[in-house]
Amino acid sequence: MGGPLNRVTAHGLQWRPSVSRLTLAISAAVSSFLFLVMPAWAQQQLPQPSFPVPWQMNLQHPVTEVARQLVEFHTFLLWVITIITLFVLALLLIVIFRFNEKANPVPAKWSHNTVLEVVWTAIPVLILVVIAVPSYRLLYLADRTPNPEMTVKVIGNQWYWSYEYPDDGVTFDSLPIADADIDPSKGERRLLTVDNQLVVPVGTKIRFLMSSTDVIHSWAVPAFGVKLDSIPGRTNETWTQVDEVGRYFGQCSQLCGINHSFMPIVVDAVSKEDYKTWLENQKKPAASAAPAEAAPAAAGQPADTTH
Ligand SMILES: [Cu+2]
């Protein structure tokens, strides 16, 4: 009987050092990735344009309070899931190397451990509570604003957007520029640039009311942290307050038919004075024939803005 037991001990001694070396190597690799590479990406991507770029690793630069909190919440969740994943990986490695048949030929026969079971139920519940509280706070923040200063109606159509400023009686359609007519020297982007962009003032609480004339679309502008379905026969509400002057891009984000990928969104956030000028131009009878055509010039808006 003494023989096999000794051998087990010998195996155990033989295995343990290599396990810790392997664990060390893996945790060194993972932590250097987390602490050296990820912040480098984050820094490299922070002052980024408000449209997708090749090899983009992070979310777009946020320009509203909701978008900023979304980015923070996303980073927080990334840490939570990274720590959980590493913890589960460590447990798996311990099981694989210390409790395989070779290292541990005579397995223990006990089952149930009350303390352990309470702990592994309570900790995940706590983690979920820690996630749920900021999640709901953010959900209610993004939901609506109590005192909007202006209202914009967003209407989805197959396959373009219509915008209405009900307080000022301004209405126009926003259609994409065809590939053949895209002029990159003017900052125009394939599948993103439109003929008449939405123009909004910065520093203003804007209520968005969204609906649709045909199928479900979704009006999404990543830099604003806004993404809301526009549903026929329904009015959905959200809001935004843009802090930085610039041109922001988005796309329909609900599969809505064959030209789903050809209904981009462009929003020019301009100063309050430029917005007033733009609005006056829109209201002029002459302008109503070709609405919003003069928008960039009137608003003194650069063809493209990168942050
Ligand atoms: Cu759509």
CATH topology of the largest domain: Immunoglobulin-like
The named CATH superfamily of the largest domain = Cupredoxins -  blue copper proteins
Terminal-residue CA separation? 74 Å
Large-scale geometry = elongated
Q: Briefly note the structural class of the backbone.
A: alpha+beta
Q: Count every helix, treating DSSP H or I runs of 4 or more residues as helices.
A: 6
What share of residues is helical?
40-55%
Question: So, CATH architecture of the largest domain?
Answer: Sandwich
Could you tell me which ligands this complex binds, including any ions or cofactors? copper (II) ion
Low-confidence stretches: 1-17, 43-47, 290-307
Notes on the structure:
- The chain is of the alpha+beta class.
- It is 42% helix and 19% strand.
- The chain is built from 6 helices and 10 strands.
- The strands form 2 sheets. The chain has a 5-stranded mixed beta sheet with strand order 3-2-1-5-8. A 5-stranded mixed beta sheet has the order 4-10-9-6-7, covered by helices on one side.
- Strand 1 and strand 2 form a beta hairpin.
- The N terminus and C terminus are likely disordered.
